[in-house]
Amino acid sequence: MRRPRGAAHRGNPHAEAREIVFDFLEGYDLLGAFWVTVQLTLLSAVGSLIWGTLLAAMRVGPVPLMRGFGTAYVNIVRNIPLTVIILFTSLGLNQTLGISLGAHNFDTINFRLSVLGLIAYTSAFVCEAIRAGINTVPVGQAEAARAIGLSFTQVLTLIVLPQAFRSVVGPLTNVLIALTKNTTVAAAIGVAEAALLMKKMLENEAQLLLISAVFAFGFVCLTLPTGLILGWVGKKVAVKR
């Protein structure tokens, strides 16, 4: 329910003008909705980086079964619409199989399921970005490491992946920005993030352009600094060959 709107600031024409222009924002938790978006992005980004790295290791590993699994996972998941994956986590995992990920509250269950769906989807793109970075590492380095007795896991974690990560900061930044925008799909299962609030505001208010502008500005504030900062980091840590 919306809170009653406060009275306009009488005697101050500038305050009254601001009251009229931004009156449609009263009663809505705009910052809270974007905070949920930030939480979805951060948790999904960490999970996607971990799972995507494991998938990349499988795809370049020496075990045919693991290579096949990694290849099949990436090729299948990245060609499924994210909306389908998010709906499956709610309708399939929760309502059909009863999986709640340790939560009992409806909102918490859907939040965690959304994070799971975003991780499952985004990790396929993270995997391909990291695999491209692995391919930039000279083969001679890995061969030299194996020659001195290092195992595949040691070669990957000590020599290959550190260089690969340094060369793919830019592509991973693009994946993170895409993930930030993809969190809007979580509204499909009722997660109270920015897109769901925007939908409610558009249904209740006659301010289509202003509401759209506010939310567009909010997402720009989230993604633009991310791109600029990580772009600078990518230039600083890039491997010189």
From TrEMBL:
It is found in: Cell membrane. CDD domains: TM_PBP2. Coiled coil: none annotated. InterPro entries: AA_ABC_transptr_permease_3TM (IPR010065), ArtM/GltK/GlnP/TcyL/YhdX-like (IPR043429), MetI-like (IPR000515), MetI-like_sf (IPR035906). It is a multi-pass membrane protein. Residues 34-230 form the ABC transmembrane type-1 domain. The keyword Transit peptide does not apply. The chain crosses the membrane at residues 33-57, 69-91, 111-132, 144-165, 177-196, 208-233. Signal peptide: none annotated. Keywords: Amino-acid transport, Cell membrane, Membrane, Transmembrane, Transmembrane helix, Transport. The keyword Transport applies. Pfam families: BPD_transp_1. It comes from the Bacteria. PANTHER family: AMINO-ACID ABC TRANSPORTER PERMEASE PROTEIN YHDX-RELATED, MEMBRANE COMPONENT OF AMINO ACID ABC TRANSPORTER. Belongs to the binding-protein-dependent transport system permease family. HisMQ subfamily. This is Amino acid ABC transporter permease.
